[in-house]
């Protein structure tokens, strides 16, 4: 007997490109396959959301490897997720998440945005993310948090950080808390660097036993904006495949 597929989350990338050139990201080096540097149409996105929620998905991530805030119609994508009674999450560098655009996204029903901040002060942020944007991102996160509260939105504003030197883990955690997390007053995740499915050569020596995240067997689906041979909506086995997109295509939606 065939068992009906079941998923809890769909990672549906609406834009394959990025406005950052982060040092630790394979989107920068070796770069992303041209077929994946595309945008997803509203129609294709709604089709993917409809199919995903029909199989049980309660959370829709609107990013993947690209930067979702480069899509000017982002609020309309968020509205589609809400239409299907799912929660919309965005993982973003946060550079464009400001002013009226930020308000429109939150008003559309965004449930969570996570700012990616690699570097615990202005200098280290510029080194790792290749842009002098630490203070701007801090301001954008603080303003989004304030607007969510004042507008009565339940949108969660959070941040994500990476340890850049495993020999100074505790110190870097302290710096992230002091210079960003506690200053703004938001929830945060601090991770150690991963190697992006073998694409990125991690300069930090791994400490402790290797463990699997279990993600290829998790109840979720990863759909890219682009694809191979002119197609779009490629399906990957894992949301962490980046820099080898063309080698990991299971099919196209």
Task: Quickly describe the structure.
Helix content is 31%, strand content 16%. By secondary structure, it is an alpha/beta fold.
Describe what you observe in this structure.
It is a single chain. The protein has a 9-stranded mixed sheet. The chain is 31% helix and 16% strand. With 253 residues, it is α/β, with parallel strands linked by helices. The chain is built from 7 helices and 9 strands; from the N terminus they run βααβαβαβααβαββββ. It has helices at 27-31, 42-54, 74-83, 99-107, 122-129, 134-151, 169-184, and strands at 9-12, 59-61, 87-92, 112-116, 156-163, 187-192, 220-223, 234-236, 251-252. It has a single domain (9-252), classed as TIM Barrel (Alpha-Beta Barrel). Helix 2 runs parallel beside helix 3 (74-83), helix 3 packs parallel to helix 4 (99-107) and helix 4 packs across helix 6. It is globular, with a radius of gyration of 18 Å. The longest helix is centred in the middle third of the chain and has 18 residues, at 134-151. Strand 2, helix 3 and strand 3 (87-92) form a beta-alpha-beta unit. The two termini are 24 Å apart. The model has no long low-confidence stretch (mean pLDDT 91).
